[in-house]
Here is the input.
Amino acid sequence: MLQNAEFWVAVAFFILLGLFGYFGVHRVLISALDHRGDRIRKELDDARRLKDEAQKLVAEYRARRDSAEREAQDIVASAKADAERIAQEAKAKMEDFVARRTKSAENKIAQAELQAVADVRAAAAEAATTAAASVMSQTVKGQVAETLVDKSITELRSRLN
Here is the structure.
């Protein structure tokens, strides 16, 4: 047994373990493993925290995007409603403008007709007075004729106008 190499390897191994125990190597190893475990735990906690923050940010950005999309849809709907309202107002103003222009043209036509009738009446009255004066002056003579002609002309003018 003392000549067996495996025996001496085992003895050396146990002596090495005893020295490690005497100098506290096992405490250093356990401490290093504990520190490594703490560091890994801390990294996992940080990773979870960062993941939670990322999920919150994603949710916040999605909410903002949804809000922006709703706002854009509201703006488009409002713009369409405004455009429709403006188009209706423009159509109503155009119809009112056309109606006023038509009425103005009809009034001008009516005034022109009245003026034409008045002009025709005046011309007829003038022609009638001239004809009456001519006839009366040829048929009636003297002072009575002049008085009668003047009176008739005045009366005829007032009646025809």
Q: What stands out?
A: DSSP finds three helices and no strands in the chain. The CA atoms of residues 41 and 47 lie 10 Å apart. The mean pLDDT is 88.
